[in-house]
Amino acid sequence: MAVTTHQSLRQADPNHRICIFGPQYCMPGPFQIMLREKFFKLREDCFKITDANGQLFFQVKNPWKTLREKHIMLDAYGNEICKMKKKIMALRYTWHMNAGENMEQRRVTMAFRHFALHTKCYVYVYEPPYPHEDDDTNYDHLKPVIMMKSSVMGFDIKIYDGENQDQLYARMSKDVARELLIGTDGYCLSVEPDVDVAFMTTLALMWDYATTDMKNN
User: Fold this and answer.
1) DSSP sequence for 67-98
2) What 3-state class would DSSP assign to 74?
3) How far is CA 51 from CA 29, 46, 66, 89, 198, in A?
4) What are phi and psi of 164, to 5 degrees?
């Protein structure tokens, strides 16, 4: 099982972009995505994701009606991009991102750790041959390609390179007023040029799902 490094992640693309889901999601300049959780979480369409102009960019559906356990992210036209799935009975809060045939190929694993002053997430990106979604997750030989880290209050989250924290890929800013007023989560996701917007959005969603579980439990 091959594991991606940050160098090979860029070298895999001829233009040295962080490209997971396709070049159509790698913008030449900075790009903003707005994520707003729907008030009725049992509805199939559970997140509204738009660009800065309010145009629908991605959709998130929960066809299994399992709240935060499994979700499908689709593009604006309804084409499936990936599946996000919580790992049950794990020592750490762990989420997998699956794609490929029947959405059963594990492409990314996210492992969360909560410290006294902040939360961190270790993001592992797999190379072919991809493990099946039901395969065991063994972190002993894996190295995180990307890191995520919250501020002390948890309102800002950085998404950065696993080896160089000065190499920023994206930044999430939480809509605190929305959470206080109507009890749902909202974020502004600012993505750097040549970084896959769909991939960063997937990481942002799984961060929200996992940290909400941590808070509730």
Assistant:
1) TTSEEEEEETTS-EEEEEEEPSS-SS-EEEEE
2) strand
3) 14, 17, 27, 36, 12
4) -135, 100
Write down the pTM of the prediction: 0.89
Identity of the amino acid at 9: L
DSSP class of residue 18 equals B
Token pair listed for 36: 């707003």
pLDDT tens for each residue of the chain, 217 residues long: 455 555 556 666 777 789 999 999 999 999 999 998 765 554 455 688 999 999 999 999 876 555 446 899 999 999 999 999 998 877 678 999 999 989 999 999 999 988 878 899 999 998 888 999 988 887 666 788 999 999 988 789 999 999 888 999 999 998 876 665 655 678 999 999 999 999 999 999 999 889 888 877 7
Q: Look-up: residue for tokens 């890191």?
A: 147
| Helix/strand/coil for 135 | coil
Largest separation between any pair of C-alpha atoms in the chain: 46
Residue 73 CB burial class (10 angstroms; 0-12, 13-18, ≥19) = buried
Report the C-alpha gap between 90 and 93 in whole angstroms.
6
Question: Coil, strand, or helix at residue 150?
Answer: strand
**Alpha-carbon span 150 to 91, nearest angstrom:** 21
Q: Distance between CA 5 and CA 10 in Å, rounded?
A: 9
